[in-house]
């Protein structure tokens, strides 16, 4: 393929400066990129299930060395699988799976994904948190923040906050708030050139000089946002040393309290020749596109400010949703919403964090959106959110409320296209039901006289 002259000359100089072999590097740009999927470890709980999901989704059991749950895929259209709609699988370029694995979020952590759309890293972090702590996923581009919202919802992450903000504004509101921050920085995109012709055109129009100041500013905001003893994982999909190692070296010079955290280097990943502990993925040495990743930690004993992160308690217990919940969930799971639901205008939510901390920030989501209170004539009714089923697991749902189809059932395909489908004989005769694929909920419907009225949103449907 045609590569920009500036890029080729700089890479040749890089290989020469560090005595690295070029053999295979240039040829890799004429080879197809590896495709990958990640299986949700929150929803798929054992190896037998993993194997079945992979087989049904048209994938082999071919794991990515640096990501538990990551697999190489020969399926060009995993988004056509019902497992994708249920949040069971997530298509993701294999190299992009590395940074969230390196971050290694733990239950209870407060984590910021600074540049989160479309959501590959955020959904992996949400799995790692296991519903404990807070995930704040930010995207400065409003249109992309909507795609991020959909992927967070599909993954069924209950403790997520989604912002549509600049890093500077978040830093002004929440200094020293986060335990861990992941930055998949805007970059010149050299590592994406072989899979996207637009990356070449973008490089020629903008290039490293445009993004380097942005990367520097994002890192400075992260330094403000991070707690003492906190950790940052910084990554790019470019080979440019000024955007990668030199960006971090400059940051460490300005912030000597930070140090690089070294890791055992996974198979297929290379240690940087420029900065000890930093990692690179080379397309001619690994099954993945070009990527850079480094893990740094602040090492100070200073005291962090105290924040009241717990959501406000409801002034009174909301109950408009309870009939819906009682009609769907098994008795042992009904209490999951008790005493936690706040009413915000017409909306019923279970916030992930105290709403007061988010004042002045443009928010897209805070926690679980259950649905809205609607008025029909003189009667108020609860209209459930279409994303609500994705928060449930199959074992939570009453058998007579769960229309559970096989992966290849024609009626499931019809449902995902927005059509009315016949109700299985096991369902109650009328009312809301959950639609699922092999035990994984994915959407809502209403059973009326043996037919399920489709409630799957038009924007989510398969073509």
Radius of gyration: 23 Å
> Structural class, from helix and strand content?
alpha+beta
CATH topology of the largest domain: Rossmann fold
**What is the residue-mean pLDDT, rounded to a whole number?**
95
Can you count the helices? 12
Number of domains: 3
CATH class of the largest domain: Alpha Beta
- Percent of residues in helices comes to 10-25%
Main sheet properties: 10 strands, mixed
Layout of secondary structure:
Elements: H1 5-17, E1 35-39, H2 47-56, E2 70-73, H3 82-85, E3 89-91, H4 98-103, E4 110-113, H5 120-129, E5 134-138, H6 142-155, E6 160-163, H7 167-173, E7 178-184, H8 197-205, H9 208-225, E8 226-236, H10 245-254, E9 258-260, E10 270-271, E11 279-281, E12 291-298, H11 322-328, E13 342-344, E14 347-350, E15 363-366, E16 368-376, E17 379-384, E18 402-405, H12 410-416, E19 421-422, E20 430-437, E21 440-448, E22 451-454
Parallel strand pairs: 4-5, 4-7, 5-6, 7-8, 18-20
Antiparallel strand pairs: 1-2, 1-3, 6-15, 8-12, 9-12, 10-11, 11-12, 13-14, 14-16, 16-17, 19-22, 20-21, 21-22
List keywords for this structure.
single chain, 463 residues, alpha+beta, Rossmann fold, Alpha-Beta Plaits, Nuclear Transport Factor 2, Chain: A, five-stranded mixed sheet, 12 helices, 22 strands, 25% helix, 24% strand, globular
């Amino acid at each position: 393929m045609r590569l920009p002259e500036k890029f080729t000359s700089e890479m040749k100089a890089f290989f020469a400066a560090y005595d690295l072999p070029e053999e295979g590097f240039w040829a890799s740009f004429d080879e197809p990129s590896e495709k990958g999927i990640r299986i949700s470890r929150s929803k798929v709980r054992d190896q037998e299930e993993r194997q079945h999901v992979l087989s049904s989704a048209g994938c082999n059991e071919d794991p990515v060395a640096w990501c538990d749950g990551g697999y190489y895929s020969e399926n060009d259209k995993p988004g056509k699988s019902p497992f994708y709609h249920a949040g069971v699988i997530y298509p993701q370029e294999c190299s992009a799976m590395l940074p969230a694995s390196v971050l290694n979020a733990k239950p209870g952590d407060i984590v910021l994904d600074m540049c989160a759309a479309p959501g590959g890293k955020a959904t992996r972090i949400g799995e790692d948190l296991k519903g404990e702590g807070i995930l704040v996923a930010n995207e400065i581009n409003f249109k992309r923040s909507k795609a991020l919202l959909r992927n967070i919802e599909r993954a069924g992450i209950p403790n997520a906050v989604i912002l549509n903000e600049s890093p500077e504004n978040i830093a002004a509101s929440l200094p020293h708030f986060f335990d861990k921050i992941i930055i998949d920085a805007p970059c010149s995109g050299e590592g994406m050139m072989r899979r996207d012709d637009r990356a070449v055109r973008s490089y020629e129009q903008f290039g490293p000089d445009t993004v380097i100041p942005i990367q520097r500013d994002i890192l400075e905001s992260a330094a403000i946002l991070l707690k003492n003893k906190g950790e940052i994982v910084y990554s790019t999909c470019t080979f440019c040393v000024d955007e990668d190692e030199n960006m971090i070296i400059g940051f460490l010079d300005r912030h000597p309290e930070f140090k690089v955290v070294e890791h055992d280097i996974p198979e297929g990943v290379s240690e940087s020749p420029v900065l000890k502990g930093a990692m690179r993925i080379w397309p001619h040495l690994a099954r993945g596109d070009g990527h850079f990743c480094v893990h740094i930690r602040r090492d100070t004993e200073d005291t962090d400010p105290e924040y009241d992160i717990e959501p406000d308690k409801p002034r009174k217990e909301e109950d408009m949703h309870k009939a819906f919940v009682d009609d769907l969930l098994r008795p042992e799971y009904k209490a999951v919403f008790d005493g936690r639901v706040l009413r915000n205008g017409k909306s019923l939510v279970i916030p992930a964090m105290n709403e007061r901390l988010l004042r002045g920030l443009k928010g897209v989501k805070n926690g679980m959106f259950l649905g809205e209170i609607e008025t029909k004539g003189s009667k108020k009714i609860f209209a459930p959110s279409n994303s609500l089923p994705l928060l449930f697991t199959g074992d939570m749902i009453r058998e007579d409320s769960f229309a559970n189809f096989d992966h290849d059932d024609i009626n499931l395909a019809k449902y995902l296209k927005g059509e009315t489908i016949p109700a299985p004989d096991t369902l109650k005769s009328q009312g809301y039901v959950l639609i699922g694929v092999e035990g994984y909920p994915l959407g809502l419907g209403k059973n009326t006289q043996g037919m399920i009225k489709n409630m799957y949103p038009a924007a989510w449907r398969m073509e």
